Amino acid sequence: MIKKIMDKDTLIAIVGSFEDASYGNNFVTEPGLPMQLGVMRLNKGQVQNHIHKVRNRQMKTISNEFHMVIRGKVFVSLFDCSKNLITKITLIPGMFCMLFNGGHGYEVIKDDTVMIEVKNGSFEGVEIDKEKF
Fold it and tell me: For 44-81, how does the pLDDT look when each residue is reduced to its tens digit (9 = 90+)?
């Protein structure tokens, strides 16, 4: 189950899990986004060795983040770009939330929760890169 959270035509987040992923390399993001999200469900064998070419890429974007719950439970609040609450979702182990626009907040529900965070760089610190509300 993968769901896009939208505010009119603006992508706020993609949430879900990869339990029901189809076989192959399946991307759920559009090619022009600053971060790409895909799931690879594969049979035994090798993925072709490769390197990624150096390319000039210019993009003006907020810090995009990917969070995945490994253990525990987290409530996520998603906001539009004007800081209005759009929805609240619950993440349990194996679920993710990938953030593109707007705001977000987390409430950790279970002690000893473990969550992975990946974001595009560079992140220069809270004072420069975040506005808390």
Answer: 998 889 998 998 877 777 789 999 999 999 999 999 99
**Residue count of the chain:** 133
State the pTM of this model: 0.84
Task: Tell me the β-bridge partners of 25.
Answer: 40
Provide the token pair at 101: 């626009």
Query: Domain spans of the chain?
Result: 2-129
Position 20 confidence tier, pLDDT thresholds 50, 70, 90: confident
Rounded-to-integer distance, Cα 104 and Cα 94, Å: 19
Q: Give the CATH class of 2-129.
A: mainly beta
Question: Are 6 and 12 spatial neighbours (Cβ–Cβ below 8 Å)?
Answer: yes
Return d(Cα 57, Cα 88) in angstroms, integer: 34
**How many C-beta atoms lie closer than 10 Å to residue 100's C-beta?**
19
Reported as type and span, the H/E element at residue 17 is strand 10-17
- The C-alpha atoms of residue 30 and residue 42 are separated, in whole angstroms, by 22
